[in-house]
Design a protein that fits this description.
Six copies of one chain form a homohexamer.
Chain A: H1 13-30, H2 34-45, H3 54-67, H4 71-84, H5 88-102, H6 107-129
Amino acid sequence: MSSKGTGAYSQDRLGDFRAYRERMNERILGAGHLGINRFFNLDTVAYYDGALDGKTKELLGLVASTVLRCDDCVDYHLIQCTEAGYSDEELTDALNVALVVGGSIVIPHLRHAMETIDLLRAEERAAADDPPGAGAR
Amino acid sequence: MSSKGTGAYSQDRLGDFRAYRERMNERILGAGHLGINRFFNLDTVAYYDGALDGKTKELLGLVASTVLRCDDCVDYHLIQCTEAGYSDEELTDALNVALVVGGSIVIPHLRHAMETIDLLRAEERAAADDPPGAGAR
Amino acid sequence: MSSKGTGAYSQDRLGDFRAYRERMNERILGAGHLGINRFFNLDTVAYYDGALDGKTKELLGLVASTVLRCDDCVDYHLIQCTEAGYSDEELTDALNVALVVGGSIVIPHLRHAMETIDLLRAEERAAADDPPGAGAR
Amino acid sequence: MSSKGTGAYSQDRLGDFRAYRERMNERILGAGHLGINRFFNLDTVAYYDGALDGKTKELLGLVASTVLRCDDCVDYHLIQCTEAGYSDEELTDALNVALVVGGSIVIPHLRHAMETIDLLRAEERAAADDPPGAGAR
Amino acid sequence: MSSKGTGAYSQDRLGDFRAYRERMNERILGAGHLGINRFFNLDTVAYYDGALDGKTKELLGLVASTVLRCDDCVDYHLIQCTEAGYSDEELTDALNVALVVGGSIVIPHLRHAMETIDLLRAEERAAADDPPGAGAR
Amino acid sequence: MSSKGTGAYSQDRLGDFRAYRERMNERILGAGHLGINRFFNLDTVAYYDGALDGKTKELLGLVASTVLRCDDCVDYHLIQCTEAGYSDEELTDALNVALVVGGSIVIPHLRHAMETIDLLRAEERAAADDPPGAGAR
C-alpha cells in the first residue's frame, strides 16, 4: 500500500531504512512502556530456532509481511532472509505464494521486494569486492 | 473473522468442510469461466515442489491464511500440512509467527486452528486403528 | 472470512439472512444515534442513479464486498444485482475480477457467492412457477 | 466477516462463546509454547490501568476489534465494556466512530455487536432478578 | 496506507510511476518464475471484454483498489479508466461507492485519486495542444 | 503500509501534510458530489461531544487508524489528540493497545506515530517560545 515504488527513492534506500528503523526503535524502547518493550522482545524471539529453525521462520515472516502489504516489514525480512542464505530463486518462489494468496493487490509490493533483493545483492557484491579491513594496515 | 469458533459445530466439522469445498469448487469450475479456472490451477501449482519444496510452501500458505484471518484457508492448509508430516510443535511454532505478526486479532483463528489440528489428529488415530480394508475379506 | 460455507446452513439461508438483517437494522436505527442513522442513509443513496446508473454501482458494491471478504455484504449485493437483471455470466465475470485482485484468500467467499447465486435463481424459479396471487380469487 | 449473524445462533450464544473461548485458550496455553503464552499475557496486561485507565482501554479494544471486523473480539470487549460500566449510549457512540472509520463493510459487525449488547443486558437483568445465592439457606 | 499524499511528489509523479512500474515488471517477468508470469497474464486478461465489457471491469478494478487502499493500483486503474472514456463525474461517483464501503480510512486514497485524475486530465490537455507529430516535417 | 518512514521526509513533514490535506479536501468538496460531501461532514461530526466526549473519541480514532495502518489518518488524529491535551504517556499507552491488537505489522506505523508526536511537541515548544504576535507592534 506504499507508493514508494515510484522512483522517488533516495540514493541509499536500504541505508536510509536501516538508520530510520534503528533510530525510531531506540526512541520507542526509550519511552519505557513495559508492554511495548516486551512486545518488541517477543517479536525478536519469534524468529529464533525452535520447533522450526529460524531460517524457515524468516521466510514465514516474509510471506506474512507481503500478503499484509507492509513494505518496511518486507524489507526487514528480506534482509534477514538473504543473510540466512536464501537464493533469489527461493525468495521468488516464496513471493509467488504471497502473490497467489494475496492477489494482484500484492503486485506493487512484489515490485518493491524485487528491487530490495537487487539492492541487497549489490551490497553483497560490494562487500565481497571490498571486504572490511581490506587494504588496512 | 469467523464466529464459528463458538461451539456450534456440526458433529463432523472437517467432513462438512471437505464436502462443501469439493461441491462448490465443482460448481465454480463448471461455470466455465476461463480466468477463474486458470486461477484455481495456478493456486494448486503454487504449492508444488519448485525452488522451495512443497512442504515448506504449505507452511507459508498456513501462515499467510492465518494472518489474513481466513478459517477455511487455515483448515485447508492444516490438512495439507499434517499430510506433509509436520508435527504439532512445528505447526504451533508457525502459528506463533502468525500471532506475533498479526496480533491479538488472530487469536480467534488460533483457537480455530488448534481445534482443527486436534480433529485431524483424531482422524489419523481413527484411521490407524481401523485402516481401510481392515477386516475385509 | 466466514466459515459458514461448510454445509451448516439452515434450511433457508437467504430467508434467515433477510430476517436477521431487517430485525437488527431496525434495532440499530431505533437506537436513535444521529450519526449512525445518517450513515445508513448515505449507504442507501450511494447506489441510486447518479453520474453512474444504479445497476453499475451495485456491481461495484459486489466486487468491493468480495475483495473485503464480507459474506453478508456479498449476499446483500447479489440480491440487488440479480434484481437489477445481471446474468450469471456477468456476475461470474465480476467475481473473477475480485478473485484476481484479492487472490486465493477470496476463494471461500467465491464459493459462498456462487451458492447464493444458485439460491437466488431457485427463488426466482419458484416465484415464476407460483406467482403471488396465483390461484387467488 | 462472519456470517453467523443470520439467525443460526444456538440458544445461548454468549454462553457458547465463553465456554469455547475458555476451553480452547486452555488448550493453547497447555501446548506450552513460550512465545504464545507470553503473548496471551501481554494481551491481558494491555488493558490494565496504566497511563490510561483500563476502562478507557477496553473501549479502544472494542473499536479496534470492530474496524478489523472480528466478531469474537467484539464480543469479548463488549463483555468487558459492560462490566466496566459503559451505558448503551456510550457503546453506540463508540461503534459510530468504528462505522465512520471502517465504512459500510462494518455494518454486519455492528448488527452482531448490537445483538451482543442486548444479550448482555438480558443477562444483567436475569442476574438482578435472581442473584446468586438468592433463596439459598 | 501510503503517505505519499504529503506534497513530496517529484515533478512528474505519473511519469515516475509509469517508468518504475514498467522497469520492475520487466525485472519480475525476467526472473522466469512460471507461476508469477502466468499470474501477470491472468491479471491482464481479467480486464478484457467478456460477459462484461472491459470498460466496466476497469471501474470494478478501480473500486476494488480503492477499498483495499493501494495507491499504485488506484493510479493504474485511473489511467485505464480515463483512456476508456470515463468522465470526472463518473469516476467521482465510483469513488463515492468506495468511500461509503471502505469508510474514512479511504479518504487519504481519495485525495491521491483526485490528484491523479487532475494530473491525467492535464496530460490529456497537453497532448491535445501539442499532438504527437505536430509541427513535424 | 507506508514506506515513508525511511528518512526521506521533507524539512517540514507536518506542514506538508496539513497543506496537502487542506488543498485536496477543498478539491474533493469542490467536485460537488453530495454523497462525498455528506460523508466528510459525518466524519467531522463523529468526533464531537456526544454520549462520549470528543477527547475520548479522538483516541478511538487514533487506535482505529493505527490498527488499520493508515499513516495519514494517524497523523491527523495525533494532531487532534495533542490539541485535546493527551500526554505522551497516554498516547503511548493507547498505541500499545493498537500494537497488541494489530501485531508487529503495526510497528512501522508505531515508528511513524512516535516521530509525529515528537514533531508536534517541537511545534508546541516553538509556539511557546515565540507566541503569535510576540514582538509585534
